[in-house]
Inverse folding.
């Protein structure tokens, strides 16, 4: 593609910039309240979720009016269906929905890692929330069914399959059944992980003391990184929880490609390969930037600010999603914030942060083998994230013409992406064949 065929303007983002900004503001105000009044209770991380979710929901509904978007699949203008009709269909959907939750609960019960360490907090929260969710789901499902354009969604397909015991099941519903399974597998797996990380991130952010930061760039960087991670996990967790059609934040599709699932799952427990002692542990005898630059009073602060900037970009990428953050899903194209400069700002900033923070070629052992091994392994991790990005793009390019237009625009106008694209074109450019020399005789 050249400039003559590339889109002249970037496609509109499905999420306005104000949504994430308001969520960040709400979380920031609650964080200040926690610091001022020294709140220290298990409910603090959950209250933080509410503090960042509420302003995002209100803005989305009252200002952006996302519930009116055609992509919600809700008809607000026509007459709603009778309650009795909706209740009959709703019973089938509730059967499918509750059975799905039951299967997720069985997965949690069978996974030993869910009953140890940080996951114990997530299990306690989800167990406590189960009964209220079941009660709220009844009026919500029936109310929504009265206005849905397509009533036969994934929950209905699963409920229908259960009630028919798999017999006489319409094969045309199988794609919806598969999509339902993928979407809830993603939500069930990642929601538990995100909730489990909340207490630790709150602890790291709250125990950052300003009086230790101003004279120590290492402490300043550590505190900033902790705050940015708190922003990331809080808004990200809200995204996994509020997958609701009236917010236009529902999952349109889960990644159908096995490569995408493998690339993503090996980056998260219990399948993670990057933990200490794991096959992709790049921190053996690692020196780290703090000790490596301890004798460089000018370079160490600059390095610290670079790490803070990269972490800030990583958190900004999550904030830009607003209510729609989620792995392995398509929930509308995102083209604002850092996504105006590069297609994968979170992956790019995260990997640059790791390289700058670890300096893998510098080790405490002084052994060249440790340095080489750490460097190669961190290179493999960066390759995994490149693989994740490619599998995600394959999914999104298949799902939405708007994303294809965004990818074409970024290839020519993206401040960072265009240089990667041009380098790839040069690499893939076929060699020009030498002219055939033919003798005159």
């Amino acid at each position: 593609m050249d400039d003559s065929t590339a889109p002249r303007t970037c496609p509109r983002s499905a999420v306005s910039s104000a949504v994430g900004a308001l969520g960040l503001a709400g979380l920031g105000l609650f964080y200040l309240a926690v610091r001022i009044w020294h709140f220290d209770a298990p409910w603090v991380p959950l209250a933080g979720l509410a503090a960042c979710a509420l302003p995002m929901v209100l803005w989305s509904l009252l200002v952006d009016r996302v519930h009116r978007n055609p992509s919600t699949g809700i008809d607000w203008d026509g007459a709603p269906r009778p309650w009795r009709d909706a209740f009959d269909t709703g019973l089938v959907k509730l059967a499918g929905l509750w059975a799905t939750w039951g299967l997720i609960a069985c997965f949690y019960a069978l996974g030993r890692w869910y009953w140890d360490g940080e996951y114990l907090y997530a299990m306690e929260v989800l167990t406590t929330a189960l009964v209220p969710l079941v009660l709220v789901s009844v009026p919500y499902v029936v109310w929504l069914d009265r206005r849905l354009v397509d009533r036969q969604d994934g929950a209905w397909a699963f409920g229908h399959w259960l009630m028919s015991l798999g017999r006489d099941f319409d094969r045309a519903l199988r794609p919806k059944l598969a999509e339902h399974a993928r979407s809830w597998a993603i939500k069930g797996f990642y929601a538990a992980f995100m909730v489990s990380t909340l207490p630790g991130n709150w602890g790291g952010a709250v125990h950052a003391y300003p009086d230790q930061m101003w004279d120590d760039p290492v402490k300043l960087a550590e505190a900033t990184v902790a705050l940015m991670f708190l922003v990331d996990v809080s808004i990200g967790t809200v995204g996994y929880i509020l997958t609701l059609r009236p917010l236009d934040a529902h999952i349109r599709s889960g990644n159908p490609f096995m490569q995408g699932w493998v690339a993503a799952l090996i980056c998260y427990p219990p399948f993670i390969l990057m933990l200490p002692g794991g096959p992709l542990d790049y921190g053996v005898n690692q020196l780290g930037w703090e000790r490596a630059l301890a004798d460089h009073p000018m370079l160490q602060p600059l390095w610290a600010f670079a790490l803070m900037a990269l972490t800030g970009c990583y958190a900004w990428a999550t904030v830009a999603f607003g209510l729609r953050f989620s792995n392995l899903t398509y929930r509308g194209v995102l083209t604002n914030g850092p996504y105006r400069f590069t297609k994968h700002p979170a992956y790019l900033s995260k990997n640059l942060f790791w390289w700058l923070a670890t300096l893998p070629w510098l080790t405490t052992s002084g052994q060249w083998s440790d340095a080489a091994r750490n460097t190669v392994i961190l290179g493999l991790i960066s390759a995994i994230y490149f693989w994740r990005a490619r599998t995600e793009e394959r999914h999104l390019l298949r799902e939405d013409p708007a994303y294809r237009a965004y990818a074409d625009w970024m290839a020519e106008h993206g401040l960072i992406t265009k240089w990667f694209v041009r380098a790839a074109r040069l690499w893939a450019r076929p060699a020009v064949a030498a002219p055939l020399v033919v003798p005159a005789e």
Notes: Residues 81-207 form one domain. The first helix runs from residue 17 to 37.
